Structures are given as structure tokens and as C-alpha cells.
Amino acid sequence: MTAIAFIGLGNMGGPMAANLVKAGHRVIGFDLVESLRAQAATNGAGIAPSGREAAAAADIVVTMLPAGQHVLSVWDDILPAARPGALFIDCSTIDVDSARRAHEAAKSAGIASLDAPVSGGVGGAKAASLTFMCGGAETAFAAARPILEKMGKRIVHCGEAGAGQAAKICNNMILGATMIVTCEAFALAEKLGLSGQALYDVASTASGQSWSLTSYCPVPGPVPASPANNGYRPGFAAALMLKDLKLAQEAALAAGASTPLGAAAAQLYGLFAASGHAGDDFSGIINFIRGAPR
Length: 294
Ligand code: NAD
What we know:
- By secondary structure, this protein is an alpha/beta fold.
- The chain folds into two domains: 3-160, NAD(P)-binding Rossmann-like Domain (Rossmann fold, 3-Layer(aba) Sandwich); 166-290, N-(1-d-carboxylethyl)-l-norvaline Dehydrogenase, domain 2.
- It has 13 helices and nine strands.
- A six-stranded parallel sheet has the order 3-2-1-4-5-6, sandwiched between helices.
- Helix 1 (13-22) runs parallel beside helix 6 and helix 8 crosses helix 12 (260-277).
- Nicotinamide-adenine-dinucleotide is lined by residues 7-13, 30-33, 36, 51, 64-66, 70, 74, 92-93, 118, 121-122, 236, 240, 243.
């Protein structure tokens, strides 16, 4: 039985670790927050007194942390304690540069590593239906795959170190920009006297089709499961969309890529979040675009 250290037992990490326990793995959890350690223990995980001790007891180490600085400092701390032959998997969403530095740190310690950020949110973490976007050596991907399959449905190898993070931020830049323009189209339709349902019926089967429209329609009605029918409760919070759009902008600046619509999306989500809507679903930006924030 593979022993897995799980460091970062928050909104995502808590249920992901619980799914590894359910799949029959020995999980040794650690988080800085006492109540989250207690919850993980209730879910059947063992608890270590520190990240270092969790890593020392494991064949595979998973981290699910807020940002690049946390991942780099945790990996620096725990790599010296890792077992020979261990595999480190970081599932956090972090900047590409930090992801590559984490891989370098692991390589210097003789440890295999994978960046494996996820999409699917807390619902996907609970249902073990996440998508994992992975970067790293083929051998590390092959070793990680059976573990990731216990927490997700789609496991994609995107390329070398950092490629998982690159895929995640590029995808979410598409998502942020298409959501905004979808909201603009519905707001324009309202002013033109065109019903939201009529716009949906045409665009959902025409060239305006996108995931933002057909799976996550920002007006109530056409897609019953979308957060628009639930008071724009997340779902995927605007604060998280803003985080990912900022990561995309940092990466674009560093790589010399022009991303004017991505930049505009980051600015608009920044304004939306700062106006008291950071916790709303990101599709709630339609109210902001209408000029009538709730
Ligand atoms: P969270 O804040 O709920 O969890 C992060 C956890 O890391 C916290 O419990 C915190 O105490 C812990 N932590 C921080 N520093 C630590 C350390 N040094 N040692 C041990 N534990 C430490 O965040 P989350 O929503 O679970 O998100 C985690 C990551 O997943 C983020 O990078 C986020 O961008 C990404 N993500 C989140 C979602 C979502 O819907 N919440 C979706 C996709 C990706």
C-alpha cells in the first residue's frame, strides 16, 4: 500500500485527501490549521506533527497550498526529509516560475516531481472528478497517475516541468475572457429587447458557442445548473478567477507574450472583486457589466 503525505488540507486538499483514504491508501496529513488536521483525522487520515514528518513517512508527497511562495518554502523544508525514491506532486495553482523552481529543488535533492494543478473546484474535489494538468518527466507522470486517478477523472500530461501550470493559466485566461464577453452579449441583448433564452438558443448552436455559455450561462434560465440560478453563489469564486488571471499576466510579461484581452479580463475581475464581490461566482460579473451590481 502506497503511503501518501498530504500537506495543505483546505477546501480542496481536505476532500482530495479523504478520497485517497477512501481508495485504501495510508494518508499522513498536515496543515497549519488545527481544525483542518482534526477534520482530516475524522476522515481517516493519520496526522503528522509537521510537514517534514509527514514527508519522511511517505512514498508520495502531495502539496495543495495557496501560492508559489508556500510551495517553495514547504518543499525546501521537507525535501531533505524525503525517502529515497519518493515522488513529489504539487497540485496547487501557482506561477510557472515557482513551479519550475520547485522542480529544480526536487531534482537537486534527487527526488522526482510533477506539477499537477487541477480544475473542477471544491465540487470536483469532493466527487473525485477533478481534471489534473501535469508537467514533468514521463516517468514521474506514470508513477503519479494511479494516485491522481483516485482524485480525478481526467489526467493529462501537458509536457515538461511547469507545463501543467502553463496549461491551467492559459485555459483560465480563455475562460475569464469568454465569460466577460458572454456577459456583455447578454447585457447588450437586454438593451436590444432580445430575450436571454433567444440569444442562448441561437448562440449555443452557432459560432458564439463556448463553455461559458452552454455549461455556465451567466443569466438564469437556459442552463439550470449554472450559478446564475443560485444567486451567483460559487461555483468558482471571482477571487480565484482573479488569482489565475494575474498568474497569466505575470507569465505573459515574463515570456514577452501579448495578451491584451487577458489583461482586460484581469482588470475587470480586479474591479469586480474590489467592489465587494470577491466571494461571488465569477459569472456574477454580468451584474457589474450591466452597471447594476447586486
Ligand atoms: P485553502 O486556503 O482552503 O487551503 C490551503 C491550505 O494550505 C490552508 O488550509 C492552509 O492552512 C494550508 N497551508 C498554508 N501554508 C502551509 C504550510 N506551510 N504547511 C501546511 N499547510 C499550509 O485553499 P484551496 O481552496 O484549498 O486551494 C488550494 C489551491 O488549489 C490553491 O492554489 C488554489 O488556487 C487551487 N484551486 C482552488 C480551487 C477552488 O475552487 N478552491 C479550484 C482549483 C484550484
